[in-house]
Amino acid sequence: MLKITVLGCAAGGGFPQWNCNCEGCRAARAAPETHEGQAGIAVSADGAHWFLINASPDIRQQINATPCLHPRAGRLRDSPIAGVILTNGEVDAVAGLLSLREGSPFTIHAHARVLGVLAENSLFGVLHPDLVARREIVLDTPFEPRLPDGRPSGLVIEAFEVPGKPAWYLEGRAEPSEERPGDTLGLRIGTTQGDREVFVIAACGRITTALRDRLRGAAMVLFDGTLWRDDELIEQGLHHKTGRRMGHVSVSGPKGAIAGLADLGITQKLFVHINNSNPLLRPDSAERAEAEAAGWRVPRAGEEISP
Ligand SMILES: [Zn+2]
């Protein structure tokens, strides 16, 4: 059965963010039980071998807090983590790879554009190619990732393009606002046993007809919950960019995710990658209640879910 463990559901910066005094971060500092790490999930077909979807800067703490990701008994150096699937090249998706150096074998799966980013940043050379293979994800082509010893994992993963933007730190080096294939991937994850599937779309710039058609009738969707409102960062005085400019559709509003993914017959809808400016991240907020009334949920770190 497909198993999913949520490692964190905050966007870049986490909750609270180290240098932020917005209302949400202030409230979080006073309530440690509401702290949330940066977005990540782990998936497994057998409950024994796991693949991370992105590796945030919080990955070390997230692994320590998640028993199924601990070294197995009787082995001095070991990890049940067999691979990392990258959906984009943002810092909060790739920086955690640096914490996974220490000589354990696993495989990185990413689009050629993200593999290019890793290749030109020499710091990622700490992941020795003899131990950490890098495999290209080809869009719209399902693949079964392998375990480090070559055996099949039992997972079937298909990546597809969703509207998005290149990583912030790459802007200015190329066509700044142009969308190019590979910048933002959505994933459809199932098993070779034909279990129900989950869609993981941690970043998405807008809801298109093609995306709605793809998600129609899905058993489970984990979706980009970065901002409640498109102008939220500007309105709170935190940043000058809209969500649309950053490649994130807002949660609310007529063009938002709640409205855009309503009436598609999706059984379980969960928001992940929620920015600390978004009141949705706060369990007691009116916005959380509004999302829940619309059939959405925000998972907690450590929660095990299945489609
Ligand atoms: Zn904040």
Write a structural description.
It is a single chain. The chain has one domain: Metallo-beta-lactamase, Chain A. The strands form 2 sheets. Strands 6-5-4-3-2-1-13 form a 7-stranded mixed beta sheet. It has 307 residues and is α/β, with parallel strands linked by helices. Bound molecules: zinc ion (ZN). The site of zinc ion (ZN) has 7 residues, from helix 1. Zinc ion binds next to helix 1.
The string of secondary-structure elements, in order, is: EHEEHEHEHEEEEHEHHHEHEE
By CATH, the architecture is named 4-Layer Sandwich
Write out the strand line-up for the largest beta sheet, numbering strands in chain order.
Answer: 6-5-4-3-2-1-13
Write out the distinct hetero groups bound to the structure.
zinc ion
Number of strands: 13
What portion of residues belong to β-strands?
15-25%
Number of helices: 9
CATH superfamily: Ribonuclease Z/Hydroxyacylglutathione hydrolase-like
Shape: globular
Poorly predicted parts: none
Q: Number of folding domains?
A: 1
Beginning-to-end CA distance, first to last residue? 9 Å
What is the CATH topology descriptor? Answer: Metallo-beta-lactamase, Chain A
- Average pLDDT metric: 93
Broad CATH class: Alpha Beta
